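agent> fetching stored inputs for the S-adenosylmethionine docking request
agent> found them:
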Amino acid sequence: MSSFGDRYVLASGRSGHDRLRMLCEIHDPRTREWLLRAGLGRGHRYVEFGCGLGYVSRWAATQAAHVTAIDLSDEHLGEARRMADGAGLANIEFLNRSIYEHGLAAGSCDYSYSRWLLVHLNRPVDAMRKIGEALKPGGIMVCEEVDASEVYTEPPSDGYHAYRDLAMEAGRKRGVNYAGGRLLHTWAREAGFEVLDVAAYQLHYLTGQHKNFWSWTFLETGPTLIQEGSLTEGRLRELGESMRAADEDPRDLRQPAGRVGQCPPG
Ligand SMILES: C[S@@+](CC[C@H](N)C(=O)[O-])C[C@H]1O[C@@H](n2cnc3c(N)ncnc32)[C@H](O)[C@@H]1O
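agent> prediction call returned; pasting tokens
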């Protein structure tokens, strides 16, 4: 049995949900655009791995014939299911499974989607192979992953830059790569996919609530970083204050976002 994540370090609960909601507010518009550009439509069976609160899956259920939304978190799935019921969506099912052991029938899906999941996994290429097994011949995998090594502010904020380096180092210790966004096409090729398209974007904020996505993420992962010995309470406070100061200062904060690969199995 695979462990959670392999060891997913972000919180669930109220704050975790609110943070995931912000992730969706920031990225869903481009995600929808990309899925449509990849050809998602009425007759298709769509599966999402690591669906979180299910925002993309619920939208996909309005575009495709059938949606399977998979996640390992009961809490996330409960919330996602509640919102799908509220929207009266009858063509969506939620499964509590790991991507490594999804149990979907081989060749049963036309489209797969995952966002900000593979960077949390120790074996992203194996995970992609598992996606490939669920896809029909010629089926399309769409993935969006973050490249956290590109978080920066200009003028430089000590807090943001120290956090970026700390996060990358913590990833190395955990055996995951939070810069996985830049590796998607290489992972996909290794997993036996033909890569059809790659794109990337980086959002910039001077003001507004989305500007604090990374400081929020940092404060959420703080207790794990302390537990792992990467951070002290005092340093967490110090970096958090420096990041919050940059959030409130109307300077340029650059936030790396997504890369997308549309890949039918080769
Ligand atoms: C950063 S969240 C992203 C959620 C969603 N894709 C989004 O963009 O809003 C990662 C999600 O992957 C789920 N997850 C982590 N490890 C998983 C695994 N091995 N299999 C399936 N889901 C997993 C987590 O529970 C969490 O909901």
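agent> quick read of the result: The beta strands are 45-49, 66-71, 92-96, 109-115, 135-144, 152-154, 198-205, 252-263.
agent> awaiting further instructions
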